[in-house]
Structures are given as C-alpha cells and as structure tokens.
Write the structure tokens for this entry.
Amino acid sequence: MNKKLGLLYGGKSAEHDVSLSTAKAATQALNFDKYDIFPVFITRGGEWRVGEQLTAPAESIEQLAFTRDVDSENDVTEFLTSLKERKFDVIFPLLHGTNGEDGTVQGFLEVLNLPYVGNGVLASSAGMDKVSMKQLFEIAGLPQVPYTYFIRNDWYKQQDALIAEMEGKLTYPMFVKPANLGSSVGVSKADDREKLIEAVELALKYDRKIVVETGVVAREVEMAVLGNDEPETSVPGEIKPKTAFYDYDSKYNDNSTDLLIPAPVTADVEAQLSDMAKRAFKILDGSGLVRADFFVTAENEIFINEVNTLPGFTPVSMYPILWKNTGLPYNELIEKLINLGIERHAEKQQLQYQ
C-alpha cells in the first residue's frame, strides 16, 4: 500500500519562489508508484491550500501555485481536517526561510504528531537564527570569524556606538546579514563606514536582528550532512562566485558561480571539514539533513560560517549535487530523507509522554 505524502511548500518568506522550485523538482524525483502525493501550498499571504492528489510530476511552478476559493478564516481548519481525513504517513516540508525552516512549521507538525522530513524544532530555530547558531558553535568549540550582533532598536538609539564597536572589534570588509533569513537575501558586503550603514539599513528590512562579520580571504567550501544519530558527510564542494560574493542572484538566477566537486582540498582538510560538520549537526541535535558552510584560508585554517537546516534542494542545488558526487542520486536522496523522518518520528513515539 502506498504511503501518503504531503508535500508542503510556498510560504510567507522572501524565499517563496525558491520553495516552489524545490517542490517542482521533488515531484519529478518522487516515486509515484510508491507514494500518494498531495500538494499543500501556503500562499505569500499565509493561506493554506490543500490540493488534490498529484498523478504525475509537476510540469511548472504555476501548476503548484494553484488557486481556488478559500475562506481565509477557516483555511487552517480545513487543512487540519484534510490531515485527519487523509491520514498522511509523512509530511515533506520544502519551506525555505521565515515561517518555514525556522521551527514554526516543525512545531506545528510536532503538535499534530505527524512524521515529517528534516530537522526538528530546536535545530531548525537555532539554525535559522545566526546568533543562536554561532553561540552554539562556540560551545562546541568550532572556530568562527569575529562577529557581533544587535537589534533594530539599538541601531536607531545608539548607531554611533555600534559602529564604533564594529570598527573596533571587526575589520573591513564586513558582511552584514539578517540574523533570520537564508539564501543570502539581504546580505551585503561593506568596504567602508558609508557602505556599512547602507548594508545595515538593507538588512533591517528583512529582520530586527543583524549579524556583522569580519570578511576573510578564503575559499568557500561546503559539505552535506545526512542522517539522524549517526550522520554521514558527503565529499566537499567549493563555490567560486564570479561576483563579489555568493549572493542570491549567484545562487538562483544568473549562473555566475563555478562549483568544484570534489573540492581540491587535502585529505587532512577534508577530514577536519567532515568532523566539524558532524559536530555542528550534533550540537543542533540535527535530523535528516544539513549543509555546513566553511571558509578555508590559503594556510588551510578552517572557520565554520553557518549551517543551513533546509538547504536549496533542486537537482542543481549544492546539497543534492554533493550527494550525487558522493554516489547518492537525487531520487535516492529524497527516499533516504523520507525514511529518516519516519524513523525519527517512530523513535519519539517510544517516549513515555506519548
């Protein structure tokens, strides 16, 4: 008997379109002879729309961004009723960014006691908030570039003091990032004070908390992590952006980035990357998947930059490509992740409070 799978995508975040692309790619890789697949679309406005069972892979993003009359006051109730009636075996969240990979949806699914693919509430929320993530990395003893952070209220009340702190603790160029966003949305490189102020103002459009880091001359190397309690790592991959840095357009729009897979690193560096990626995964209590991003200097000094608990997941995204080059093709990777989600849920059912 086929498993009933709910494909959850869209969302209110700035990465809505990325989520749609991911969902389309997933439908083209899922085994329709093994799963009964139902689309669950969240509009940009936050409305939940449950579609009829898919009988074939989606041919376009527009097909997945379906529209129908929805009572906005009852759409969540309708969704809950649909979950109860269809008795999904597993939910596959493909939501990027805020209200998707930040633990909110994961908590919702936990309350419903539904199996789902990927990281749980803690890993998702801590992985989304770059400040919490960095603080956990410090506990794990993982080396990082110098950084500082502040909130919007402090910026408008004591801007001069914060700039003085940044210029005293960090060095130009600096990278300014919204603390709770992914896909490099709202991220800027600042080479001087004027650009720093502009970068902070841009980042504040996306989040109330801002992270500022010292730029480092280094190669950008990534490693994919897969598993639950005993995670495995892929071969490393190096990103060589042709722009100033690996921004949103470089990732999704203009193909201005070269990927070197496997990355040309020594066996010792690869071993260190693997160890650090697993430590990052475990300190977050990860489940399913994580992409760990690093800086590797010319002297082979390694800094962990961040982890992404729901990385880009189309066939041309770094996470699936890394596993493909490790020997695990896209369709088998999806199958593995579904099984890991079901496995983690089954483990939780053994706890006494269940």
Q: What stands out?
A: Residues 250-254 have pLDDT under 50 and may be disordered. The chain is about 40% helix and 20% strand.
